[in-house]
Amino acid sequence: CYLEDGASKGAWLNRSSIIFAGGDKWSVDPRVSISTLNKRDYSLQIQNVDVTDDGPYTCSVQTQHTPRTMQVHLTVQ
């Protein structure tokens, strides 16, 4: 997920459950983390994926102007 500027705030959700909000981790799952290669990168990382991780993931970015969302679907076979 891409933050337009360093001031934007991001959140990752799985279905309706918040995984991360900004830098705060809401998930108790130790396999999930946020990759921040730079201040505009806000990528969700899941280690050792399992079939239970299958499904939609949504990144929501709150900018100064309008909120944006991006959805990806993780398929685990």
UniProtKB/TrEMBL annotation:
SUPFAM superfamilies: Immunoglobulin. Keywords: Disulfide bond, Immunoglobulin domain, Repeat, Signal. The keyword Transmembrane helix does not apply. Residues 1-75 form the Ig-like domain. InterPro entries: Ig-like_dom, Ig-like_dom_sf, Ig-like_fold, Ig_V-set. This is Ig-like domain-containing protein. It comes from Marmota monax. The lineage of its organism: Eukaryota, Metazoa, Chordata, Craniata, Vertebrata.
